[in-house]
Write a structure and sequence with these properties.
single chain; 343 residues; Neuraminidase; 5-stranded antiparallel sheet; 4-stranded antiparallel sheet
Length: 343
């Protein structure tokens, strides 16, 4: 990392009472990133909060209440038109939901409530109770996500264990399974060509990054390692950028993860570290690119008695100007996506 100024409070995000589209404004520090989403338990339960941009504030996204601990929302990703796709277990299992701009409530991707609940709404793709996770956009109209597939011996039951990747249109139609390896596949993102999927998998032992072609007749047969493994390290949480590069989190035994960026050239991939333990001693992960070239990342977990275990920081695409963008020394936790919650 290059020039790192004093850690600064860049933005305060309040607890809001309102649904998707509801909003209460508070002062925000100039220079904070434009609208972005964090996952936070600041209101008593895990919910999504979206900033209103520079000079705005934040709003509760996709839920009418922040304090109802009977369900949790998380794992948000923004689709090309600004719609937020996320997961929620409000229906009893983790499932995909969409929150459109201007809508009062979030709606499920699968089931009769999808596509307005009409007669043509896809009802058979809900996965027979299988939990969904890690959604991400794939082109303009599709979502790639992870799901624990039903047990082959009992299609009506949910198998314990590894997830596979699936692709679906945003209206809940066209569900397609992409992987079928016994190892866990998750955290997918799509490159700008709209069909190349990068994901994390333990199929070679340590968790590594792989790529597949979602539009191939058999996507599993196209799976290849993204780059040569670095002995003793584990990679996770890739984020695909428009220029074809990849952000991801890498960890080594006994050390916290840090955020890297990999660019691909004729000579192969070249990975560069963007964060380090000198400034983020408890590590960083789950990078999320913003439209202006900046990157958000989840820092932590730090010590529980020293403030929140997790917080969100921002950094420029070149690795400069690291700054905290969520409230300092608060009694709650903020994360960019909360892809693999530990509790």
């Amino acid at each position: 990392m290059r020039s790192l100024p004093r850690m600064a409070l860049a933005l305060t995000l309040p607890v809001l009472a309102g649904a998707c589209g509801g909003e209460r404004r508070e002062e925000a520090t100039a220079g904070a990133p434009d609208a972005f989403v964090v996952v936070s338990n600041r209101g008593g339960a895990w919910r999504l909060y979206e900033t209103a941009g520079a000079g705005g504030g934040a709003r509760l996204v996709g839920s009418p209440r922040a304090d109802d601990a009977s369900y949790a929302d998380g794992q948000p990703a923004r689709l090309p038109d600004g719609t937020i796709v996320f997961t929620s277990d409000r229906g009893g299992r983790a499932a995909l939901y969409l929150c459109d701009r201007g809508r009062e409530e979030a709606r499920p991707v699968f089931g009769a409530a999808a596509a307005g609940g009409g007669a043509d709404a896809p009802a058979g793709d809900a996965g027979s109770g299988s939990p969904d996770s890690d959604p991400a956009p794939c082109g303009a109209d599709r979502i790639v996500f992870a799901r624990i597939a039903p047990a082959e011996s009992d299609p009506g039951a949910v198998a314990d264990g590894a997830r596979d990747l699936f692709l679906v249109r945003r209206d809940g139609s066209g569900l397609r399974r992409l992987t079928g390896d016994p190892a866990d596949d998750g955290a997918p993102c799509a490159l700008s060509d709209g069909h190349s999927i990068v994901f994390a998998s333990a199929r070679q032992g340590e968790r590594r990054l792989f790529r597949l072609d979602a539009d191939a007749p058999d996507p599993e047969r196209t799976v290849t390692p993204l780059f040569n493994a670095v002995t003793g390290t584990s990679d996770d949480a890739p984020a695909c950028l428009a220029d074809g590069s990849i952000l991801f989190a890498r960890s080594a035994p006994g050390a916290p993860s840090q955020v890297f960026q990999a660019r691909f050239t004729d000579r192969g991939p070249a990975a560069r570290q963007l964060s380090d333990t000198a400034t983020l001693p408890y590590g960083a992960g789950e990078p999320v690119p913003l439209g202006d070239g900046r990157i958000l990342m989840t820092a932590g977990p730090g010590p529980a008695n020293g403030g929140p275990r997790f917080a969100v920081y921002g950094i420029s695409g070149g690795g400069y100007n690291l700054a905290r963008v969520t409230r300092e020394r608060a009694g709650y936790e903020d994360l960019t996506r909360r892809l693999r919650p530990s509790r």
